[in-house]
Amino acid sequence: MALEHAILVSLLERPGSGYELARRFERSIGRFWTATHQQIYRVLKRMETDGWVTAEEIGQEGRPDKRSFSVAPAGRAALVTWLRAPVQPEAVRHELAVKIRGAAFDDAAGRAALVTEVERYRATHEATLARYLTGERRDFPDPAARDAETALQHVVLRGGIAYERMVLAWLDDVLATLRTLDD
Length: 183
What we know:
Elements: H1 3-13, H2 18-27, H3 37-49, E1 53-60, E2 63-71, H4 73-84, H5 95-102, H6 108-139, H7 148-181
Antiparallel strand pairs: 1-2
Helix pairs in contact: 1-4, 2-3, 6-7
Pfam family, one: PadR
Keywords: DNA-binding
Domain Transcription regulator PadR C-terminal: 92-179
């Protein structure tokens, strides 16, 4: 997937400025696709040149004017083509998993350091899960509200929640295993 596709989806959900898009990436789209402000602005410029988005100048009192982007017909067509193309399963590259396997060839001090690293790694996933659950309560308070856009946004978030819970369970298993090796 290219950043262009994530931006098109976001703009179809709601037109906005580059700044607003960056905020959306931080708040929701970033759950599954990250981008810096600079990347978003650079790609928006290219998409505008390619005719995928259009920009409208919006005057703001006391602040510089902003440009609000929306999806042009060519952008929608490009997105539909991408949406209908098959998706290849992603290859898993997990540096921590390789370190865990390699711990068999380290000593007790090395494995103790790995426990500390796994605990740190686990804390980041715990914080991510907490953010996702907070976002779910905030953004989807009524599970019965089921327009297509809301239902599909929520199912993606539920996938992120399930993934984080799976990673946490696995990390708990890793820690339990590491702690029994040197007892």
